[in-house]
Amino acid sequence: MDTTTLLYIGLAVIVVGVLVYQVVTSNSRRNKRFLSSIINSWGNLPKREYDYGELEHIAKYFQATKKEEFTIDDITWNDLDMDSVFCMMNQCRSSSGDDYLYKLLRTPLTSKKELEERNRIISFFQRNEKTRIAYQMELSKVGHSKKFALIDYVNNITKLPDSNLDNYMHLFLYVVVIFAIIAQPASGILVAIGVLIYNIYTYYKKKTEIEPYYVSVGAIVHLVSCAQGLLKLNVPELKDYTENLKQAVNVLSSVKGNAKFLGSTDKFSGNMGSMMMDYLNMFFRIDLIMFNRLLAKVQKHKKEMLILMDEIGRLDAYISIASFRELMPFYCESELEESKEGFVEAKDMYHPLLSEPVANSIYEHHPVLLTGSNASGKSTFLKTVAINALLSQTCGMALAKEYRSCFFRIYSSMALKDNIQGSESYFIVEIKSLKRILDAVNQDKTPVLCFVDEVLRGTNTVERIAASSRILQSFADSGVMCFAATHDIELTTILKDCYSNYHFQEEVTEDEVKFDYKLYAGPATTRNAIKLLNVIGYDKNIIKGAEQRAMHFLTDGNWKS
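The chain above was modelled as a monomer; its predicted structure follows.
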């Protein structure tokens, strides 16, 4: 073997060595980055920022897999600002985790046994840091797909035809080029340049067309890899869940071997090896050919793909909930009963989105009517009770020192808006929202828990009080555990036999209003809206005139012109 040959062999060995070193060190840096992120994020507020429309993509998994069971409808979800609660809770390391956590929060359990099992796994991750970190390291390899909802492309992937024949035809052009160069070197080179430009152009055009599906297959490869990693950890406490993974992995494991050919769709691309793979793909369409081979396999196994997404997402979501528990100032494991009679008993319950929340306690087996002025805390308290009821039936926890209740179907009618596109006034939207709650009463044996803020605010005083009193009475007669807030003090008298009265209050001085946001028993006994005008700085004549007009109505029963 001559010196030149040895030199070439030596250079080849060096190049290969450099590539291997790049891959190894890149993986090492990636793992260190994952570990640092996992440790720093545990029990802290998520730093993740969501791209425009990303939450809509996350919601699609819930919408696509929703069954006949009770779920939180859009009105209630938006009333409670549950998107913000989700973002505050979401420390998931994978898109499957994002999707499952969102679905979990919109699907309250009504089975004590199922909730206890969920709580067991969440508590296990809280207590076992080493196992939890090992799981999160594997889950981190899946990552987040921000542009696409994976479930959409899993559902649509069977519609994509195999286009490998076209890829092979483009490769055949290189054979033509070789013969052209041999026959006529000068013109052959020009042909080679033309073919190369044409192939690169058609490569990127084709890749753009199938990119969503291409990314989906790449994501499935990472899910398979993650599942294999989780199975190797072999944690006895999680055996039931990893057993479910085995079925999907056994069927889909063959796709993992081709992952290296997927080029830049690999979320860990960027090292020298990946860059060289990108060039090879561009010239020889290796990724497109392998994509079609993978496509043929995954099209046959949609069921197993859904199992993979579901089980990985479940474990990721449970870890996220465990971290959320550590984030909160305090919480308790909820005590829930399967009962036909609605009740809520909570000690020092608070709202998760407030930086300095005021905790309130309530022990009620009857519907509740809340009164008090604007900004005194009525709406926040309604949302506090509703969110904690939802967290109890989804995450097995309440943000309280003690929490007991029965299982509920949860509804609200609070932050409604006019439906301009549907030509519906606020009042029409409101009465439709309330009717959906009345219609739900007889659909299931599980009691209804509902929250109504300012009943029928969209109409005049006389009809509002007359109609709202009958609607609230109907809720009580139907066994609905209703929490309603109102400015109509008259309702506290009309409904005193079926609703427990509570109120919020404030102290108004000449130049300020002080709220303590504490819940008090009984109806509100003071009126201070006109006093608030003075605090804000309204003209003294407006304030004096308003006070005189209000006093005239209270004494004579009619309005003075």
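The radius of gyration is 31 Å.
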